[in-house]
Each structure stands twice: as structure tokens, then as C-alpha cells.
């Protein structure tokens, strides 16, 4: 019971010196977007016509003006859709994810990503 207690010799491992944080935009708002075009009785027909309208673009990317026209919503709501998509995309290599907030319109969203969320 009289054994002396020696100093602790445990070592603390070095923390990772290359920790990288990549903040993502989160433009989520409460409520629903007023997209009357997506309230339909025949979903296949409605989504097919929406896809054809979006595919008519010469590039594989869709900006907020084309999205607003296809969904018949305001430019602000179309911009909110693009910002929301940018914040939830899993691909860090997508231009929409890595673009600055002001450049979202010029970059646009990948057509296939938009079709998946429709």
C-alpha cells in the first residue's frame, strides 16, 4: 500500500495537421415553392414534357432563367432551387458545388441532377 505512484508516461498522438473544412451553402427556406407545373394528374406525361423542355438547351447545364421558364416560377425561386441543389449535391467536383454564390447562374446545374430531383 505504500508503493509510490510514478509519473504518467502516456503520449498524446499528434492531431492531423491537414484538417480541411469545406463550408457548404445551405439556403433552405421554410415552405414549398409554388411550382404548379409539378401538381399533375399524370406524372409521367408532366415529367416527360418538363425533361424535353430542359433538354432543348444546347448545353448539359441549366441556368436559373431556363429553369424558371420550364417550371413557370420566378427567377428568385429558380435561383433558390439551384442554391438548394448546390448545397446537397454529393459531388465535390461539380461546378455548381464549387462555384461562388454570385456565379451560380453562370455555372448552372447539371441537367441530370435536375431531372433526378424533379
Automatic annotation (TrEMBL):
<feature type="compositionally biased region" description="Low complexity">
    <location>
        <begin position="7"/>
        <end position="19"/>
    </location>
</feature>
<dbReference type="InterPro" id="IPR039589">
    <property type="entry name" value="TBCC1"/>
</dbReference>
<protein>
    <submittedName>
        <fullName>Uncharacterized protein</fullName>
    </submittedName>
</protein>
<feature type="region of interest" description="Disordered">
    <location>
        <begin position="1"/>
        <end position="21"/>
    </location>
</feature>
Amino acid at each position: 500500500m505504500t508503493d509510490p505512484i510514478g509519473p504518467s508516461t502516456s503520449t498524446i498522438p499528434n492531431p492531423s495537421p491537414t484538417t480541411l473544412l469545406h463550408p457548404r451553402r445551405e439556403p433552405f427556406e421554410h415552405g414549398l415553392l409554388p411550382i404548379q407545373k409539378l401538381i399533375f394528374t399524370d406524372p409521367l406525361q408532366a415529367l416527360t414534357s418538363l425533361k424535353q423542355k430542359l433538354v432543348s438547351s444546347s448545353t448539359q447545364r441549366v441556368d436559373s432563367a431556363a429553369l424558371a421558364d420550364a417550371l413557370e416560377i420566378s427567377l428568385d425561386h429558380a435561383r433558390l432551387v439551384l442554391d438548394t441543389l448546390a448545397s446537397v449535391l454529393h459531388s465535390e467536383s461539380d461546378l455548381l458545388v464549387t462555384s461562388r454564390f454570385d456565379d451560380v447562374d453562370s455555372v448552372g446545374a447539371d441537367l441530370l441532377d435536375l431531372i433526378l430531383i424533379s
